[in-house]
Automatic annotation (TrEMBL):
<keyword id="KW-0808">Transferase</keyword>
<feature type="domain" description="GAF">
    <location>
        <begin position="28"/>
        <end position="173"/>
    </location>
</feature>
<dbReference type="GO" id="GO:0004673">
    <property type="term" value="F:protein histidine kinase activity"/>
</dbReference>
<keyword id="KW-0067">ATP-binding</keyword>
<keyword id="KW-0547">Nucleotide-binding</keyword>
<feature type="domain" description="Signal transduction histidine kinase HWE region">
    <location>
        <begin position="640"/>
        <end position="719"/>
    </location>
</feature>
<feature type="domain" description="GAF">
    <location>
        <begin position="202"/>
        <end position="346"/>
    </location>
</feature>
<dbReference type="InterPro" id="IPR035965">
    <property type="entry name" value="PAS-like_dom_sf"/>
</dbReference>
<dbReference type="InterPro" id="IPR011102">
    <property type="entry name" value="Sig_transdc_His_kinase_HWE"/>
</dbReference>
<dbReference type="Pfam" id="PF07536">
    <property type="entry name" value="HWE_HK"/>
</dbReference>
<dbReference type="InterPro" id="IPR003018">
    <property type="entry name" value="GAF"/>
</dbReference>
<dbReference type="InterPro" id="IPR029016">
    <property type="entry name" value="GAF-like_dom_sf"/>
</dbReference>
<protein>
    <recommendedName>
        <fullName>histidine kinase</fullName>
        <ecNumber>2.7.13.3</ecNumber>
    </recommendedName>
</protein>
<keyword id="KW-0597">Phosphoprotein</keyword>
<dbReference type="InterPro" id="IPR013656">
    <property type="entry name" value="PAS_4"/>
</dbReference>
<dbReference type="Pfam" id="PF08448">
    <property type="entry name" value="PAS_4"/>
</dbReference>
<keyword id="KW-0418">Kinase</keyword>
Amino acid sequence: MASQRLPSLVEDDARLDALASYAILDTPAERGFDDIVLLACQLCQVPVSLVSLVADDRQWFKARVNFPSCGTDLNSSVCAHALAQPDEVLVIPDLTADPRTRANPLVTGDPFIRFYAGAPLVMPDGHVLGSLCVIDKAVRPAGLTEAQAENLKALARQVVTQLELRRAVMTRDQARGEEQRAYQVREALRDAQARIAATGDDLDAVLQAVVAGAIQAVPTAEGGVIELLDGDRLEYRAVRGTLAPHLGLRVPLATSSAGYCARTGLPYLMADAASDPHVRRDLVAGLGLGSAILAPIPHGDAVLGVLKLQAARPGAFTRGDLDILGLFTSAATAGLTEATARADARAKDVYWRGLFDRLSEGFVVGEVIRDAAGHVADWRYVEVNPAWGELIGIDPSTVAGRTVREVIPDIENEWVSEVADVVATGRTANFTRRIGTLGRWYEGRAFALDGDRFGIIFLEVTARVEADARRLALLSLGDRLRDLATVGEMTRAAAEIVGRTLGATRAGFGRIEGDVEAIEVEPDWTAPGIPSIAGRHRFDDYGDIRAHLRRGDALVIDDVATDPRTRDDPGPMRAIDVGALVNMPVRERGRTVAVFIVHDVQARIWTPEELSFLRNVADRLEVGVARVRAEELQAVLNTELAHRLKNTLAVVQSIATQTLRGVTEREPVDAFERRVLALSRAHDVLMQKSWAAARMQAVMESVLGMQADLDRFAFDGPDMDISPQAALSLTLLLHELATNALKYGSLSANSGQVRVAWRTEDGTAPALVLDWTETGGPAAAAPTGRGGFGSKLIRMGLVGTRKADLRYASTGLRAEFRAPLTDIQIQVH
């Protein structure tokens, strides 16, 4: 059928634009459309069904069943006639009889179609893009039933829905793509500007940064170049990608595409190098040039050169790419201007630059940054000298143009606010301040320069400040220890002073048990968020850390994850928030009896000065603790001795009264002297400050024999040498127990007995256990109220451990006392 007999709507521009907006032509098959034509065949009982879209020069089938080709020319189109009746199904019972179709090549020739029914595809804007049609090779005089026609129209509406959904998804994806592209361009421009800012006065580095950023922003570019104007030529000054081998190439200004861009001062899109009028044909093959975009680099009213991106294939670039290129030519202009200015200033200032670089003090030239309200919110580095880098620990070449908050994250606000005040008032500010993230102290002066610029000259004084802090801490500790009366108060005070002075996260004091088997940690000081570890801990649970403390050496670990003593299993240390630690031993008579503890949750290097400080603290704390313990013991001894002396004198008085009254013979007088001598010897034992080694049972018999006949006592235990302190403590304890037994307990009755038994128990910390058992006397009763001095002495137990278990039973008093065996026995050195 001749094309002029088709409906005029076929060539309607608005309809064709609508069809193009769906971008559907020549796309791959899709299940949604294929299912619709399959269903149309079944509903209408035909062998062929098509989703046909009518363009200006062809009809194309998005989906088809039992039809040989994906489309035909318009001369073979029946669906084009459906455009003319958008509100109803076009039904042609016999295509050979209808004047519109009887000459159609598909009717007169293969595949010899005879029946056609097509429901128009009417879009929401009213345009008809084609039809959903069914075809049969047999004439169907009755056409479609009413139900079949309605079903076909419903399926046509589903085709429209599929097209709308497809376009919506495509629009969404395009929007996302454009958003991603815009992000990529912003990132590329930001990266280029950052590289430009870091180049200083290196012109070639500025140009390279611009070309690299432009290629990053336009991914279709395979090569890039900045061609700088040099007389009547343009020189390839910065090259990347496929143009990298052509550095230094010179092309004529008058007869090249870059020359055309530079002469006109206008950006230029070269779609196809093969036909472009401004391309030098002799360079196309060598440069691999298929298409390109070019933009001038302006400087005032002049042009410095041209930025060009190219690709090997024609049509690689769009107008949008050309707009993007203009962003980078602006960056190139700014970078070149700044670099040139810096180069000029540097050339004029060689002497001062040398002086600046030779300063041993750190020197900063900075410039404040203001927010929209004009308030100083930050400041950026303009210049720093090499000494700045050595004092701060940062490469000075990396900071120019960056802000202080970028270079030193989390820096204290005072470093900004003080500079803001200097710039605002013009007054010089002296400072001694710490940068927390660097852990260093600095002393210096900040002063105003011109405008919003300022200078800072400074030195690091960390060692001096920390030494002063440690010295003051030792003075403070000494003052506090003099005023404190208990061991707990002393250890807590020392822990807090050490923790704050060293910036640690935990500090404390602990008593060693056994042969450095375990430690009982006193209530400790901790930084916020760090838990206490007060209580008992076994050293072996935390690694191979006992040997140093046994020898009396400090245990110093900078990193529990790498130190050979803990690295095999740092988990237990990490579980109590320990990344680094120091255990400073306290020695007594050649053995480690206590440890001062310092922890840091992070790994850190403990300096010799810090370790010396800790040794001083441990020594002072031990002296203070020894003083308190000595005062406690002395108070006990003084009270007891006074009490015993009073009783002894009373006894002496009684003996004198009874023995000497009216007696002239020598025998009663001799008896009196022997009794006084015995009491004197007992008193001498109590008054001694130190004994030589004594056998344990001998001490017991000596003290108990003065109270009652030894046959009233049963001794059961291994004899052993005990220390002077242990002997004194045992004497006082047994004397008081025996005195109470004489007054109130089993020794007050003629048949009463006392069993004294002792034993050693092995374990992590070997101990001595002493049992006192009274039988055959009256029932035991606990003392009323708090009890007298004797009761307090008994509760103190052996060697002041306070581990005394007293049971008052109907059969008599039963008491058990425990003490570390290392505190009882003589230590052999």
